[in-house]
Design a protein that fits this description.
Chain A: InterPro entries: CoA-transferase_III, CoA-Trfase_fam_III, CoA-Trfase_III_dom3_sf, CoA-Trfase_III_dom_1_sf. Chain A: It comes from Candidatus Accumulibacter adjunctus. Chain A: This is Succinyl-CoA:(R)-benzylsuccinate CoA-transferase subunit BbsF. The complex is a heterodimer of chains A (442) and B (409). Chain A is an alpha/beta fold and 442 residues long. Chain A folds into two domains: 46-251 and 412-438, Rossmann fold; 280-370, formyl-coa transferase, domain 3 (2-Layer Sandwich). Chain A is 40% helix and 13% strand. Chain A has helices spanning 8-18, 33-45, 63-71, 102-107, 121-132, 145-148, 153-159, 184-190, 212-235, 245-250, 256-263, 298-307, 322-327, 329-341, 345-354, 365-370, 372-377, 418-425, 430-438, and strands at residues 52-55, 75-80, 111-115, 136-139, 164-169, 239-244, 280-284, 290-294, 359-361, 380-385, 389-394, 399-400. Chain A has a six-stranded parallel beta sheet, sandwiched between helices. Chain A has a three-stranded antiparallel beta sheet with strand order 7-8-9, with helices on one face. In chain A, strands 10-11 form a two-stranded antiparallel sheet. In chain A, β10 and β11 (389-394) form a beta hairpin. Chain A is elongated and about 85 Å long. The two termini of chain A are 23 Å apart. With 409 residues, chain B is α/β, with parallel strands linked by helices. Chain B has two domains: 5-215 and 342-405, Rossmann fold; 245-249 and 256-327, 2-Layer Sandwich (formyl-coa transferase, domain 3). Chain B is built from 18 helices and twelve strands. In chain B, α3 (66-71) links the parallel β2 and β3. Chain B is elongated and about 85 Å long. In chain B, 57% of the residues are buried. The chains are: A alpha/beta (442), B alpha/beta (409). The interface between A and B is large, with 159 and 157 residues. β6 (239-244) of chain A pairs antiparallel with β12 (366-367) of chain B.
Chain lengths: 442, 409
């Protein structure tokens, strides 16, 4: 089960993608031929090389775990319906490739697409054969669906005792709501995140429009898979990782549960601010742009007062203490609003950065593309594909010093590896593959 | 009942020792997860107040805040002043006997103390080191201080939360970026451990808060790269890709529901729930493209329907029809929710020295064969200093007293 062979073209992309840092010890020079050689061998040296992952999920919650494993060397087989494929292929902005939206191109990275109709008996049999030759299975059907197809845990385990299975669903595999359909935005609401986005007493807005819950549940899923693989090495036993998207969101809510449990405190929407610190929020600059300023400690406020040219504000009898600032929240915020509002974004940034005050631009994606730090860290990976031109996607996170991940291909065309996998991995004769195709099982 | 030692020794990370010399949430959260799954976590703190996380948020009778109690779960607290040469020596001793180090000092700080990667690696070639900062160890902004609030801004999600053209608001929580980075850090550590098992070689993970946030932005980057499209704030409904898709007020004042029809089939089910199946006909709104073109009309129909019913009526009808809907829960709603109870997402833990029960989020991810566990909440400052120095480094009582007198510990 060697990792994917990388073509010369892949290596070039990979060098661009992993060679983020320009001045650090991790820097992989994209031009050095020695590095290229390293990278071309690198596939088998990556931490997840030798591992085969079946991703039979749709959209992102769960499948993103497969993306990460793929970035670090696993072979990922995306098993899709022969006609429809993953609905993610149609979700979002269309590209020039008819079976791929931009989200699919980005998040379908590093996969091979294998079509298989699990609603047909022969499809199920083939699937079990794939499972027998794989290490990890990722799925996100509504609980009970795989069981209906004869692909419950018992059947899968019989095919492969060491199988590690990640199951992601809106509400998890147990509990009264298990059969409800769940998506990230519903999970944000259910887990209490959306309730908190917006101004007090006003409309709760979507907390940033991105499907955080899908990414979060996949991150927990990938951690679960790695833990389970570690256990498998000792015991030979596989196991199930069961994640509800809402749980992954709820786990990020710092002290909210403890504070309600102990003091009955219900956290409400706080607009652009924070309940633990002042000033801590978003402020508008004179050129109608925004910055975030976060004075989490008294020392940071002291620096900020100096930057504003008002060091006396940090005195012990004024606002030197977080408690004083929280008590005088309106007044302190007013001072900050006035100061920030009198300067351009660049001026605020420069003064705060020089004064070591935690500050950041509220970047739009246009700002991000221009940002020198994003460039230097290689956060924007640029991949070229014939017929598509250049596609810019987020680079690999996290960055490992000895075994950096890589992006070998964008989201593949539907069924691009069906023949290869059936023929080479399962040893099915070409004629039989033709028959399966005619019957639309693949 | 606490799990037996036998069960604990079967956890996937039994036998792994982690030093958490970091502060607040991000890198420490990586260590928390490792601890939940069997690793021994030594929280190394300065003797003068310790991790500032002990002061963030709501204080308890023990002074340490609730956030500390919850997120420092399972850790042992060891005090050590790294500004003093003797503290540095003891730290090196701990490094020699550990597998993982988590830190989040500003780049260059550990190096200043003589504890940079090259030094640590010589002491322990198998060491895995997680380095978390606002901007990473490289690049022009590497020396800037970073917090999650700033990472949300730099990573592009703060810009996207709020009413169109209105003030950008906090995207629900001020700590998302910390937890996200903790997750990526934990993943990096687990992959590095796997590499170490094969090769004997350690490495470091260079994590940046803003990168974790930016990685979660779906098609934001490719859509700008290819079409120059800049996504803006969308208020309560986000209709770039799907409609209806957002928050809708109900007849109950202040109670909202989320509805998310990402496919045509789901919209069809919603129309069934609404008793308006004709809306899903192909020549009406059956197709996502048509709905997106007529988003204002579609949203208005859904808003009218939601506004005419109580929250629970809407949800009951949606669930009966299999339509994707859910409440916008407050924490009070969550405490009363059957699913949270059935899944035991909230665990109540008695801490003798707090005198009260503390309710905290339970372990994630959920593993069937080797589930993680919470043995105790965040420790008191220096609670385990003596134990660790004597058991692990072999110091006797008088040596420890001496260190304490010199305020090294």
């Amino acid at each position: 089960m060697a990792g994917e062979p990388s073509s010369t073209k892949d290596v070039r992309q990979q060098a661009e993608v992993t060679g983020g840092a320009s001045d650090g010890p991790t820097a992989a020079s994209p031009t050095s031929s020695e590095e290229e050689h390293e990278n071309s061998l690198g596939g088998s040296r990556l931490p997840m090389s030798g591992l085969r992952v079946i991703d039979v999920g749709t959209f992102l919650a769960g499948p993103y775990a497969a993306s990460i494993l793929g970035e670090f060397g696993a072979e990922v087989l995306k098993v899709e319906h022969p006609v429809a494929g993953d609905p993610m292929r149609r979700f979002g902005t269309a590209s020039k490739r008819h079976d791929a939206t931009l989200a699919w191109l980005s998040e379908g990275r590093n996969r091979k697409s294998v079509t298989l109709d699990l609603r047909q008996r022969e499809g199920v049999e083939l699937f079990l054969k794939l499972v027998a030759k794989s290490d990890v299975l990722i799925e996100n059907f509504r609980p009970g669906t795989m069981e209906e197809w004869g692909l419950g845990w018992e059947e899968l385990r019989q095919a492969n005792r060491g199988l590690v299975m990640l199951r992601v669903s809106g509400y998890g595999q147990s509990g009264p709501y298990r059969r409800r359909s769940g998506f990230a935005h519903i999970a944000h609401g259910f887990a209490g995140l959306s309730y908190l986005a917006g101004f007090p007493g006003e409309t709760p807005v979507v907390p940033g429009t991105v499907p955080l819950g899908d990414y979060l549940s996949s991150l927990y899923g990938a951690i679960g898979i790695l833990l389970a693989l570690r256990h498998r090495e000792v015991s030979g036993e596989g196991q199930i990782i069961d994640i509800g998207i809402y749980e992954a969101v709820f786990r990020q809510m710092d002290e909210i549960a403890a504070a309600y449990g102990l003091f009955g405190k219900v956290r409400e929407r706080e607009g652009a601010g924070s309940f633990v610190a002042v000033p801590h929020g978003h402020f508008r600059t004179v050129d109608d742009k925004w910055v975030a300023i976060a004075c989490t400690t008294d020392r940071m406020f002291e620096r900020f007062a100096a930057v504003m040219g008002r060091p006396e504000l940090a005195a012990a009898d004024r606002y030197g203490n977080q408690r004083q600032r929280l008590a005088a929240r309106e007044e302190v915020n007013r001072l900050v609003i006035e100061w920030v509002g009198s300067l351009t974004r660049e001026q605020v940034m420069r003064r705060c950065v020089d004064g070591e005050v935690p500050v950041g631009k509220l970047n739009s994606i246009a700002d991000i593309f221009e940002d020198e730090h994003f460039q230097a860290r290689g956060n924007l990976a640029r991949l070229c594909e014939e017929g598509l031109g250049e596609v810019v996607i987020p680079g690999v996170v996290p960055t490992l010093s000895e075994t950096p991940g890589r992006i070998s291909n964008l989201g593949p065309p539907l069924g691009n590896a069906t023949y290869e996998i059936l023929r080479e991995l399962l040893g099915i004769p070409a004629q039989e593959i033709r028959r399966l195709r005619q019957r639309r099982i693949i | 009942m606490p799990p037996t030692e036998d069960a604990a020794s079967r956890l996937p990370l039994a036998g792994i020792r982690v030093i958490d010399a970091a502060t607040v949430i991000a890198a420490p959260y990586s260590a928390s997860i490792l601890g939940e799954f069997g690793a021994e976590v030594l929280k190394v703190e300065n003797p003068h107040g310790g991790d500032p996380m002990r002061q963030f948020g709501t204080p308890t009778k023990r002074k340490d805040t609730l956030a500390w109690l919850s997120e420092a779960r399972n850790k042992k607290s060891v005090t050590l002043d790294l500004h003093l040469p003797e503290g540095v020596d003891l730290f090196k001793g701990l490094i020699e006997k550990s597998d993982v180090l988590c830190e989040n000092f500003r780049p260059g700080t550990l190096e200043k103390w003589g504890l940079g990667w090259e030094v640590l690696r010589q002491i322990n070639p198998r060491l895995i080191m997680l380095r978390v900062t606002g901007y990473g160890q490289t690049g022009p902004y590497r020396d800037r201080p970073g917090f999650a609030r700033v990472a949300h801004a730099v990573g592009g999600i703060a810009f996207l939360a709020g009413m169109p053209r209105g003030t950008p608001v906090t995207p629900g929580s001020t700590t998302l970026g910390d937890y996200l980075t903790g997750l990526y850090g934990c993943l990096g550590i687990l992959m590095a451990l796997r590499h170490r098992d094969r090769t004997g070689q350690g490495q470091y993970i260079d994590a940046a808060l803003y990168e974790s946030v930016f990685r979660c932005t779906d098609e934001l980057a490719p859509a700008y790269g290819m079409f120059g499209r800049v996504r803006e704030r969308h208020g309560p409904t986000h209709n770039d890709f799907a409609c209806p898709h957002g928050h809708f007020p109900t007849k109950d004042d202040g109670k909202w529901v989320a509805i998310s029809c990402v496919t045509d089939k789901l919209f069809e089910r919603l129309t069934t729930a609404m008793g308006r199946p004709e809306l899903a006909a192909p020549h009406v709104y059956g197709d996502q493209k048509t709905r997106l073109e007529n988003r204002h009309d579609v949203n208005e129909i859904v808003r009218d329907w939601c506004g005419s019913l109580h929250r629970d009526e809407i949800l009951d009808r949606c669930f009966a029809a299999g339509a994707p809907a859910g409440p916008l829960n407050s924490i009070a709603d969550i405490f009363g929710d059957r699913q949270f109870h059935a899944r035991r997402n909230l665990v109540a833990i008695d801490e003798p020295d707090i005198g009260e029960t503390v309710i905290v989020p339970s372990v994630l991810p959920r593993l069937s064969l080797t589930p993680g566990r919470i043995r105790h909440l965040g420790p008191r400052l220096g609670q385990h200093t003596d134990e660790v120095l004597s058991d692990l480094l072999g110091l006797d009582a008088s040596a420890i007293d001496d260190l304490r007198r010199k305020r090294v510990i």
